[in-house]
Structure formats: structure tokens, C-alpha cells
Amino acid sequence: MLTYNLDERNEDPLYVHLYKCIRKDIEDGVVNPHDRLPSKRTLARNLGVALVTVESAYAQLLAEGYLYTEPRRGYFACDILSRPQPHDARRDLPSIASGGSVSSGGSEKSEKNGGFAGRNSSSQRISTSYSSEKPELYDVESKIRFNLASMETSPDSFPFSTWAKTLRDTLSLEPRSDLISAQDCRGTKRLREAIAWHIRSVRGLETDPDCIVVGAGAQVLYNLIIQLLERPETVALEDPGYGRLASIYEANGIRISPVPLDSKGISSEALRSSGADLAHITPSHQFPTGIVMPASRRYELLAWATEKPGRYIVEDDYDCEFRLAGKPIPSLSGIDRSERVIYTNTFSQTLGSAFRIAYMVLPTHLARVYRERMGFYSCTVPAIDQMTLARFIEQGDLDRHINRTKTRCKAVRNALIEALQKTPAGPFLSFENIDSGLHFLMVAHVRDASSPEERHPRGASLSHDFLENAIADSLLRQDVFAKLLSSYRIKDGTTSDSRQCRLVISYAGLSKHDARPAAEAISRALTPFLF
């Protein structure tokens, strides 16, 4: 029977302390892989706590992949003990900091990249790459009333009055020398300290402010990472994934290796065979599928990173604050003990899409290399904006804004799903990964593409290619733009069920009043293709 001292929980809620205790026992091997845990009622009775306390702790452990369930048998510990070797990445520092090329020679790298066809190379492109912009095949003049593919937040969600007051206070109260003088290449120390406090409170990530670098958006930081790592030859990207990432790496002459997903996120086996030394992933909320990477897969990726000198993982934690059930999933960087993970995040989701302030947390040895080799760069964010954001965080305004936004987004999501379920298409719809962030997958159960007798009213067979184009056209006629993932490849090379069509539904830019008309428009577009 599991027994813990619940008086040592400090300021943690009771369920959080219990969750941490059980997680530590699983990580330390006190609870062995596949051991059955006590039932919720039994453990609650043994510890003298409410049943809801144990339920909440178990729910968080399930979400993070520390536990799994079997029908009518109970809860079991996952096997997460395939830990990476404790190889210190600082031992690899000379190969990165030497100033020489990562490859054996510049001519060799140029020759290898010479055969890369760039953005139009279908063999290297992510097969279902996602872009927040409309593809060229759509009429750019179309009046899209509901853009469910865009991750842009609603302008109404920005705290204009609070930000205006904070800006006025910054201009009137802060020393003028701090606002107009040249700043550290990593950003103002005050903002870096505020960010360190913020990610410690929100993500449980302990970091030195000297390891934080501030930049004007995530894309700026990705280019800095590429230079810092001396342009790695190949980068592994999730497939499907965020298409703009591929464009950024390709623009820097880096070969793209699309790595398929399985139910746990990016496939560690496929990653090993990709030939990449850099992996760019979204473990806490994969984009666009919404998969939350469990603890076992995270340790597998860390093991991959430690198997060879110079390997790194870029962790994109872009909407981690908006997990709508339970506590946020811990970051991959938080369990990294070998300094292999570069953590990145942005305020574009929390404050607004046009709010171009992002940051990265570098491993200690890379932070030193950044200062020595790239300290000539000026910070790309104006000092006034940095100081204003620092005050905004220090005063608790950011936390209050995030809590209000979560409440609003949860109401919008619930209203949208409820409205969709009430439409004529409702019986043919199901929803996946709805609690992880600001988008989810909607699965439409369409006609079987493998049955030749099933015909669209136009007379064409419902092949996957036709299906995607036809549904996309229908959505646009209903003034709805959404990204379809009708048939993405998974680890074993098979495809998803031919009778299922997946759509990425982003509700970041919707209001609660938009839910019903958006649902009705989606239903009208999908009805001709349903069973």
C-alpha cells in the first residue's frame, strides 16, 4: 500500500503533493513498471483524504503518461525507466564552440545539400504540413467568416486598458537610462528575471535568468538556434507538423527529415533512423494533432539525444498555459539532466498574435557559448516593451489575464462542441485531445473511400485526394476555413481509417457567440460527405 506524509506538502494543493509523491516513486523504481496501484477508494481511505484528491492525482498521472488503465482491473504504472545515460553535453562543447564547421568540410556539406530541391521537394517536405495561412489554391479575396485553422487570438482578448496603464507607469517611473540605453544581447535582466519567475510558477521549470534569451518572436529565436548550433546538417520535424518550421530550416540550407507520429507523439525509432542531430518537437501539445507526449516517450527522446555528441532537442511549448483540465504537463526541459534541451516559448498565444516577444532557455554550456560567440547581436525587442512586460508579469497582471483567457476559451470550446453535436452532422462527429490547448481535432465519419459504389453527388469516387479537396471547397462555400488531416501516416506506415476525416479546429480567435453559426456552417459543409 502506498503511504505518504501529506504534512510535507508546503504550499502545494493536496492532490498535487500526492501526484508528485506517486510520480517520484514511479521515476525512482519504487513502483515497478506495470505494478497495479491501489484503487482510488482504497488509497483515499488509507491516506485519510477525500476521494476527489486521489481522483485528481491519478488523472494528472494518466495525462502525463505515468499511469495507464485496464478496464475492470484498475491503474498500472507505465514503464518509463529507459532513462538516458547521464552523459554531460558540456563534454561536447569544443565541437560546438570551436568556430569550425559541424560537418567534416564545407564542400561536403554543400555537395550534400546540392541535391535538396528546397520548398517544392515532395520527398523532403512534411507530407501534411500545417500553415496558418491560406494555401495558394484558395481565393485570397474570399471573405472567411470563421477561420478555424488560424492560431491567431481574438483582438478582444488583449488587455488593452491594463497594458496601457503599465506602459504609462513604465515611461513615468522607470529610469530613462534603462529605457533608451543599449541592452544586453539576451534582453534586459529585469525581463529575464521576470520570465524565470513566470516559468517556475507556471511550468515548474527552474532556470537561471542568464540562460534566457529574449527575441522578437519565435522565428527570430529559431534562426539564432541554427547559428548557435552551427547549422546542423539535418533536422527532424514532426509529421504532420507546423509547416512554417520547415520553411525556416530550409531557408537556412538545412535538410528536413519528416518523422511520423504514433499515439505517443514523434516516433523515437523513426527519429533514430532519420540521420538528424537536431529534433524540433511540441511534446506538451503536438501541433496539429494535439497529442500529449507521455513520460516514457520523453525519456526515449532524451536517451536519443545523449547517444551522440552534439545532439539537441528544441522544445516548442507554445500554448502550455492553456491546458484546460488538470495542471499543466511538465516540460521536457524540466526532466533533462544532460543539458540537451533548448526550451522555447512565446507570449503570442497568451497576449496576442501580434505581440512579438518570445524567449528561449539555453542549457548552461550553450548560454556561455551564446554570450561568447553571438554577443555582438542587439536584442531585437525594444527596451520599453521589455520593461513594460516585466512590470506586467511582476504585478500579477499576466497571471490574471491567463486565468481569464482560460475561462473564456473553455467556455468557447464547450459551446462550440455542444453546438456541433446538436447539428445534423452531430451523430457523425467525435472529438480528440480537447483539453490540451487552443485547438482540438474533430473527426468526421465519412463514407467509406474504399467502396466504389459510394459516390459523391458530383459522380466522383470518394478517394482521399478527392475527399480533401471536395470538403475544403465546401467549407469555403460556407465561409469557413479549416485545415484537414484526412489521412496522415503513422509509425507503421499505414494510414488512418479511410472512413474518418480529421479537421484541426482552432477556437483561439472565436467568441462564444460565434459557436453556433460556426457549427452550423461546418455541418452544412460536411453533410454531403457523411454516412
Q: What's the short version?
A:
This protein is 37% helix and 14% strand.
Shape: globular
The CA-CA distance between the termini, in Å, is: 50 Å
Backbone CA Rg: 24 Å
By helix and strand content, what is the structural category?
Answer: alpha/beta
Helix percent reads 25-40%
Number of helices: 17
Low-confidence stretches: 94-141, 449-462, 489-496
The major beta sheet can be summarized as: 8 strands, mixed
Please count the beta strands (DSSP E, at least 2 residues each).
16
Structural write-up:
The protein is α/β, with parallel strands linked by helices and 531 residues long. 37% of the residues lie in helices and 14% in strands. The strands form 4 sheets. An 8-stranded mixed β-sheet has the order 4-11-10-9-8-5-6-7. Helix 6 packs across helix 14 and helix 16 crosses helix 17. It starts with 13 loop residues before the first helix and ends in a 5-residue tail after the last helix.
